[in-house]
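User: Could you check the structure of this?
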Amino acid sequence: MAEADGKSSVLNDGSEEPDPGEDQRGEGDASAATEGHSGSQAALREAGEEAKDKPMPDAKVARVPGEEEEEEDTDSMDGSGLYSLTEEGERESEGGRRERVNERDAGKRAARKRNRPSGGTAHHSSSSDEDDDDEEEEEDQEEEEDEQAMDAWLGAELRDLSGPSWRAVPSLKSREIGRDSHQFVRRVCGARGLVQRLELQGRLERHTGCVNTLHFNPSGTRLASGSDDLRVVVWDWARRRAELEFDSGHKSNVFQAKFLPHSGDSTLAMCARDGQIRVAELSATQRCKNTKRVAQHKGAAHKLALEPDSPCSFLSAGEDAIVFAIDLRLDRPANKLVVVKEGDKKVGLYTIFVNPVNTHHFAVGGRDQYVRIYDQRKINENENNGVLKKFCPSHLVSSESKTNITCLVYSHDGTELLTSYNDEDIYLFDSSHSDGADYRRRYKGHRNNATVKGVNFYGPSSEFVISGSDCGHIYLWDKVSARIVQFMEGDRGGVVNCLEPHPHLPGLATSGLDHDVKLWSPTAENLTGLKGLKDVMKKNKRERDEDSVRHGDQYDTQLLWFLMRHMRNRRPQRTRREGAEGDTDESWSSPDSSDEEDGGPDHVQCMSS
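Assistant: Sure, the predicted structure tokens are below.
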């Protein structure tokens, strides 16, 4: 469409098409029209002479049959020159943009005229028309300034895309002769050309509620999903079939279900809105032996953090501000590791992640703007509340807006920390920097407001950043340039929450408010055109700015959710206690259980996911 609009605004001789508004303005004055006509003819003749000396921009050169074209970067399967905020797929001609703006302004003027009072003298009507024209000009100028400010914001902090790091044909030739064959898959998975060819490959349908969690086993052959229907499904995703389905044992929305590493895919750790941390033992005959409660948070538990080399140890974080270290080898598995505080106030947690290289370090985020890193060996709550270092974007340190961290993840080598903020942007920190260091990269365009949304790296060397959005789309940014290289419609329900890249293949699984799991593979014949991206990004930014003005509504929503949950939980409390005593599942208690902790005034449930 952009290319067609651009061509329609250019005459056959290469000169610009005259503005139709000039003809309309000249109808009232014959002499002025004559002068304008002769002037326009001279301009056309002059432009025609200039056009003769210039080659046509879209002219195609005929080739002799059998003549080979010069080899370019086609082997790279990459369109590095297209993907910015002024990509070919998004670029509009000036004529097309003017036409839309004129139509919009004309509609607004007509609406204003309809709203004018009909009475009054001719003199009063004339002065009123002049005032209205002045107001219209001011409003049009303000809209144009807003549009320019929006474009400037979207284009800020971006870098140029680098050239392609992988070329298909040379790489295939090298693999055929055994050169660097062990690196072939890693380079393919991190190739931008394949990211730009991602498309929907299939759906996994079994759940009857929103799918909140996805996790591949270490070998990538199985995929676990958990849902609001309180069930967990283990999929043979390649064959699109469910191998195992079982009741999680939770009483409310399942938020995470993860395979423990080196466990032979026989152990799944789970957490949920009910605050329980449970472990499911799976048999080789595709059945669940039992589920056990190993810890209890007072408040929702959104995330678990696995230790990469441990089949029996992991961490959990809850909205009660507590981090549990859980060791399944112990009689009492849960050990309270730290209570996260800012000053004397507890900070409810939404996310936690262990550094994959230095497993003693872990990072948490939640109901304030700070990323906190702890060292399990050196936690002393009397000294800086046990925090090793804190990160925060400099403009959010003293911000009055109540900014939350909904998700954070370490890169593959633990050197970088990616953080997604509620109704803000995504920020990349260097985990080796000192306490208080600012962010290195900023990723814009999506919307993170309605749910506790995830973020992730994509690629074996964390080459890309991937996130869902309230607008229902999936965004992939090039990590270094911060430019969007892929943009896909990911959820009919309107929100994409969970994104899980495959550990060894170029593909990923996603889920959101829809009741299915979507699988994506780089099978598209053509590179993405990023159609509609710029308009969606602007719409997300405007809605975000409007909501920030009336941010008090957020507290009303959270208070309503808290009251509903409190009323719902009061009635079955006795039944739940009786059920716990007679439950067939084994349950471990802990002297450090957060049931004994006071939730405090900060204990408010987050919005439903």
